[in-house]
Design a protein that fits this description.
Radius of gyration: 18 Å
Distance between the termini: 16 Å
Helix content: over 70%
Largest sheet: none
Length: about 80
């Protein structure tokens, strides 16, 4: 019973982290869209370096989200079969 509770706790933690990182990734996407929108900003004034930095962060967030999703799936299988 204790092991099951521990697995549930780990699953909850993974799901919460997925939500947090997903929200952060969504924010990065929205900011990148703002920074690179030619309807809002002339090309010469676009903050491309800032957008590139956010893209680098987004790559890392995606990798972490994929790892967390895999872990959550493993925990679900262990808990629910």
């Amino acid at each position: 019973m204790r092991e099951r509770q521990q697995l549930k706790g780990e699953l909850f933690d993974a799901q919460e982290e997925i939500k947090r990182k997903g929200t952060k990734a969504q924010g990065h996407c929205e900011r990148i869209r703002e920074l690179l929108n030619p309807l809002l900003t002339e090309f010469e004034e676009m903050r491309i370096a800032e957008a590139a930095g956010l893209m680098d962060d987004l790559v890392m967030l995606q990798a972490e989200l994929l790892r967390l999703a895999s872990r959550a799936d493993q925990l679900k299988k262990a808990l629910y079969g």
